[in-house]
Amino acid sequence: MQKVNPSISIIIPAFNGARCLKKNLESIKALNNLDEIELVIVDNMSTDSTVNTIKSYENDVNIKLIENSINEGFAGACNLGVRNSKGEFVFITNQDVLFPPDFFEKLTQIYKNFKKSPEIVISPALVFETGKIHYFGAKNHFLGFSYTPEVGEELPKNKIIKRTQRFSGGTLFIKKEFFLKMGGFYKKFFMYYEDTDLSLRLLRNGYKIYTTNDPFLIHQKKFQTLNEFQYYFLERNRFLLILRNINDVRKLLPIIIIVELILIFHSFFIRKFRVRLEIYLELIFNIKHLKNMREKSKREGELLPYQKLSKTLDPILLGNLQRIKVFRKLLNILNRFLIYV
User: What is the CB neighbour count within 10 angstroms for residue 106?
Assistant: First the structure.
């Protein structure tokens, strides 16, 4: 099934996703405007039956499958998918989401209603299969943390369209040429915070990001404990994010050190201290590269004043440890200091 000029290209990085891709592809197959859709899937060297699952839908969906010879992570795979897409718009998402049939009809109408000059991007809500919120707009903190405070809460019933400081990499609607103009995702992130980094670059350049709960996507994902691989990229990339986007880092250094001491304490409880030590050593040994990265980012546009980002942190960041009083007390004390920075 092929269409020469699709209006929308769905971009999906795939990796060992055979178990969830069938439901994903079935939901895409049921889209009301399927004749306007191109699906670009970039497989990052899957070792299961992912590729065969994708190929089994080639007669039902306009699929372009790119089989990577290396694992480029989420960021690199998305960039490759966008470059090889034909749609005027791209929708970047995950292999484990489910689309409602009228998803793109509603989404394109919102774009038409809100589009002015300059360009905008829209990031619809993600909910777990339980109906609870996974993403519905996000909060960016000047210490590099980015998260949805309402995670686990009910999605509002009334239709809401609102501004947000960050889109989700699992639900991004953007013009293809605009994504490329902004440089796409920074490949060094590999996975996690590549969406926050691009969001901050959008904010630095005066662009607006919107989220909505109508339409929304269902995420075939459950709450889970971070493994060492995930923890590494989440915490390492937070430092890259600060260096690439936030001004006055030297002024923030004392509070950064205090927070890192708390996080070291935290890492003992979640058995991730060794990984945290590896992150610090990597940053130290690559300090010259990090300086060059920051200078390059400065040349691409004025860095964001940290005062424009959030100054308080929510208990959701503590995960299961938010039940432990000592951590909640530490967070409350920290927030009292942060608001005066």
Answer: 17
Domains of the chain: 8-219 (3.90.550.10), 228-310 (no CATH)
What contacts 24+ positions apart, CB below 8 Å, involve 109-113?
A: 110/161, 110/210, 110/212, 111/173
| Residue 215 and residue 100 in contact, taking contact as beta carbons nearer than 8 Å | yes
Select from 267, 272, 195, 278 the least CA-distant residue to 236.
278
SS3 of residue 92 by DSSP:
strand
Name the pTM for this structure.
Answer: 0.93
pLDDT per residue as tens digits for the range 199-245: 999 999 999 999 999 999 999 976 567 789 999 999 999 999 999 99
Q: What is the mean pLDDT of residues 95-105?
A: 96
d(CA 104, CA 175): 14
The C-alpha atoms of residue 190 and residue 15 are separated, in whole angstroms, by: 13
